[in-house]
Structures are given as structure tokens and as C-alpha cells.
């Protein structure tokens, strides 16, 4: 069944001091998305950038999410780091709490938590770590959505525990037969029109073509793309225009869960 409404989420605030990774300005991207995953200082981000990005999201009515990663500025959080589950989860709690306070400062609330990069992929495949993460969320942010893939262990554990979840579809990443994305540290420049077609098909049919050439089912509530993908602004514009043309409403996760209170971002 075709989706009537969908969230668009993007990783934001990914810089440090004077350094910025994304070629697109966060302000331009913020006008096109409905939820922002805001870097929390370990893989990217710093207090002043977190504050500015949260303020920008609040001004645009964009759902605010913490985007905690491994403590890996040099590798941008895309390198797996070994550690005890308790240590890794404590890092997530620390980062999430910092972002939540910036949200409170600007009269907003924490909509979601989405782990970043290699940490996201490790949680997806590591049941013990996912359980520790979900238990920490239930103690510290029980109403916040966890963003994850439908096929991930994170999703299964969160559903079993009663933690709200949002399932993601990756616009700018390839899929394998398992239904998971093919992890990469570097993405070349993609064709915005092809990405828009991929997204519209997924919304219409809940299907996606894999790198092996198969079509597989995909279940999702939110479409993700990355601000550091080359040409991200053109991708965002093409996706949004295609979704609007199809009559698919765009709204933050909090409004997807409460459609009677939704304000469509046309």
C-alpha cells in the first residue's frame, strides 16, 4: 500500500570549530526536511554548532534528534571502535543529554535519537548492545523515537521493549539482499532524478532494487539522506518535489505518530 505521509531526515551540524564537512548550507537543507539528526560532538559537532543547529531546526518546525556516534572526530565516526557495551551506551547517553539541553534552551523537545555511522551499523547487528541502548533510552528518553532500519536488531529489541521507533529508508545508500544498506565511508556524486525515482517507488510499492539486481520489500516511515553526500542539496530538492507531486505529505516523526495534529510541510 502506498504511503500517504513520510518523514525526511538528514544528518546536520556536521562540522567542528571552523571546519565544515557538507558542501550544502544547513539553512538551505533545513527548509527541505522534516527531522534533523544533529551531531553531538563525538564524530562531529561542538557546543556552539549544536546550539545554532538546534535553533535553526526549531525555527523551521523540524523535529530535533540527537545523532550520537563513536568518539572518532578524525574518522568521522565511520570506523568501528571496540568497547564494553556499558561504555558505549554511556557515551550515547552523554551526547543525547547535551543535545536535549540545547533543545530545551530553545523551547523545543527531543523528538528522536539516531546513532551515527559505524555505531548505527554495530547496533543493528549486535543484540546485546542494542538491548543496553534501548534500556538506557527507556530510563532517560522513554518518549523519544529510535531511528533504525526495519531489519535491524535495534528495531526488534525496541519494539519488544515498547520504545517508539521510526523505520528508515536510505535514499542515498545502496541495499543488499538482506534488506540492510551497504555500508560505505565515501559516496560519489549521485543523480538527483534517479534518487527521486527510487524514493517515489519505495513510497508507492515498498520495494527497492538491491546491488545484486533483485527487488526486495522495504518497510519504512522516514526517508534518510546525508548532508555530506556530494550534491545533497540537489538530491533533497528533487526528492521533495517528487514526493509533493505524488501527493505524499511530509511531516516530522512526532506528527506521523499523531496525524490529527500534523502540519504538512508542502
Overview of this protein structure:
The protein is an alpha/beta fold and 266 residues long. The protein has one domain (9-189, 221-230): Alpha-Beta Barrel (TIM Barrel). The chain has nine helices and twelve strands. The chain has helices spanning 26-30, 47-59, 85-105, 117-125, 127-140, 153-161, 192-205, 232-245, 253-256; strands at 5-12, 15-16, 19-20, 35-39, 63-67, 112-113, 145-148, 165-170, 207-209, 215-217, 222-226, 249-250. It has a seven-stranded parallel barrel with strand order 1-4-5-6-7-8-11, surrounded by five helices. Helix 3 links the parallel strand 5 (63-67) and strand 6. Helix 7 (192-205) packs across helix 8. The longest helix has 21 residues, at 85-105. The model has no long low-confidence stretch (mean pLDDT 94).
Amino acid at each position: 500500500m502506498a504511503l500517504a505521509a513520510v518523514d525526511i531526515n538528514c544528518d546536520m551540524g556536521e562540522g567542528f570549530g571552523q571546519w565544515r564537512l557538507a558542501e550544502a548550507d544547513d539553512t538551505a537543507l533545513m527548509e527541505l526536511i522534516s527531522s534533523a539528526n544533529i551531531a553531538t560532538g563525538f564524530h562531529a559537532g561542538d557546543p556552539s554548532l549544536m546550539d545554532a543547529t538546534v535553533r535553526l531546526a526549531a525555527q523551521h518546525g523540524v523535529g530535533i534528534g540527537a545523532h550520537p556516534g563513536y568518539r572518532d572526530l578524525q574518522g568521522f565516526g565511520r570506523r568501528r571502535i571496540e568497547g564494553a557495551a556499558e561504555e558505549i551506551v554511556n557515551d550515547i547517553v552523554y551526547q543525547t543529554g547535551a543535545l536535549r539541553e540545547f533543545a530545551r534552551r530553545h523551547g523545543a523537545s527531543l523528538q528522536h535519537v539516531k546513532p551515527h555511522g559505524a555505531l548505527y551499523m554495530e547496533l543493528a547487528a549486535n543484540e546485546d548492545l542494542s538491548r543496553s541502548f534501548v534500556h538506557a533510552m527507556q530510563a532517560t528518553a522513554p518518549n523519544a523515537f529510535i531511528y533504525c532500519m526495519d531489519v535491524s536488531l535495534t528495531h526488534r529489541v525496541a519494539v519488544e521493549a515498547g520504545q517508539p521507533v521510526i523505520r528508515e529508508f536510505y535514499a542515498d545508500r545502496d541495499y543488499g539482499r538482506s534488506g540492510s544498506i551497504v555500508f560505505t565511508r565515501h559516496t560519489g556524486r549521485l543523480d538527483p532524478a534517479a534518487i527521486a525515482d527510487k524514493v517515489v517507488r519505495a513510497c508507492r510499492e515498498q520495494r527497492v532494487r538491491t546491488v545484486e539486481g533483485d527487488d526486495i520489500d522495504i518497510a519504512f516511515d522516514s526517508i534518510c539522506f546525508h548532508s555530506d553526500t556530494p550534491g545533497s542539496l540537489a538530491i533533497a530538492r528533487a526528492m521533495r518535489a517528487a514526493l509533493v507531486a505524488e501527493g505524499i505529505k511530509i511531516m516530522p516523526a512526532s506528527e506521523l505518530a499523531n496525524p490529527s495534529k500534523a502540519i504538512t510541510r508542502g
